[in-house]
Amino acid sequence: MKILVINSGSSSIKFQLLDMEGETVLASGLVERIGEPTGLLKCVLWPGSVDEVVVKQQESIADHRSGMLEVVRLLTDGANGAVRSREEIRAIGHRVVHGGEDFHEPIVIDDKVVSAIENNIALAPLHNPANLDGIQVLRELFPGVTQVAVFDTAFHQSIPDRAFIYALPYEMYEKYRIRRYGFHGTSHQYVARECAVLLGKPLQECNLITIHLGNGCSMTAIENGRSIDTTLGMTPLEGLVMGTRSGDIDPAIHAFLHRNCGMDIEAIDHVLNKESGLKGICSMNDMRDIHAEIAAGNDRARLALDVQTYRNRKYIGAYMAVLGRVDALVFTAGIGENDPVVRARSVAGLACLGIELDQEKNKKRGGPATLISSSNSRVQVWIIPTNEELAIARETASVLNKPLQ
Ligand code: AMP
Question: Does residue 288 have its Cβ closer than 6 Å to ligand 1?
């Protein structure tokens, strides 16, 4: 069964075509700078195989529809295409950022689902409209093919009210749905499932702390396989220190910036999302650059690393307290999978909580899942590569295989 996975952003579309027998990637790529004078389409057919073909096209791509038409043409292109015809694509899985309180699992897209995603636009004004663009175009290009929405928020719908309610007037939740939703759910759920297999236990018996450290960062407390707390909040801004996002700050800073620094709400929003985090502290948001600058004696780079890893450690401690018993910590995503220094500093001094790394094993960068805790460590520590495309494809396949209600 072949499944196409789509992650449609405001000016880009990421795609991956998978054959679910053997879970092989037949093609993957990206359409970038949609609507700009020069767009870019990159597609790798048969990646990693001897037949690998890399296609790069630089041309104007007016909108999502023409970008997707070009992708479909490449995927079905005669002898070179990953499939012979569109008909071979059995289903399409869409990443949707915000499902609000409406969705706690993936769902087949119909008009009702589309309007529910529309209703959540206020909660994700940048992401949901772009996701909807992708859905609309693909429904048009593949009429009759099952399309499934997989929500970034869905895994966190099991969080209890004591963890999702903000201490604001309760009407703000009732009227405006202001609450913690959490994001990166597909990634947290995917690595949790992988971890359960590695621990040799059913997921329903696993207590885990999953730590997604990429450009966006979040941590989730998982009790008996279910998310019970997570650091991202109503929007993907709360919690850990990210590449360009601040994470936790005193909410009164907004008013201070407005009253004393002449900033309007748009400017404040921009600073907190795009000019803060690691970048705010040291002007760099790529951890590889930050390490290079620390080696060259840059004290701001040192501070950025300190602030991020201190925040990570603080939340690991908090989630240990929330969970009581923890089987494993899991590091994932760009930094989590590749950065021994960040991992070591995020758990430094936590031997008192039963967390100890094996310094040799922790030197690992990338590659398959690896146990990096010492044999004395009460809590296992794992690096598990995330794979959101595969997770979406698996979810899509599982929705197809569900018996009709
Ligand atoms: P992601 O959002 O998961 O793609 O992660 C992207 C981030 O991962 C980059 O901005 C880098 O900060 C970080 N990253 C990627 N590769 C490495 C590496 N080898 N060492 C340290 N950080 C890395």
Answer: yes
* Residues 13, 29: Cα–Cα separation, whole Å: 8
Beta bridge partners of 289: none
Choose the residue to mutate in 14, 213, 286 for probing ligand 1, maximizing ligand atoms within 8 Å of C-beta. Answer: 286
Tokens at residue 263, please? 């900033």
CA 297 to CA 291: how far, in whole Å? 10
What is the 8-class DSSP label of residue 383?
Answer: E
- What whole-number distance in Å separates Cα of residue 396 and Cα of residue 390? 10
Domains, the chain, ordered by start = 2-151 (3.30.420.40), 201-388 (3.30.420.40)
Q: What is the pLDDT of residues 7-20, one digit of tens each?
A: 998 889 999 999 99
Distance CA 349, CA 320 (A): 14
Alpha-helical (H) ranges within 232-355 are 252-261, 265-274, 277-282, 287-295, 299-323, 333-338, 340-346
Task: Give pTM, 2 decimals.
Answer: 0.95
Q: Which residues pair with 6 in a beta bridge?
A: 15, 94
Q: Does the C-beta of 287 come closer than 6 Å to ligand 1?
A: yes
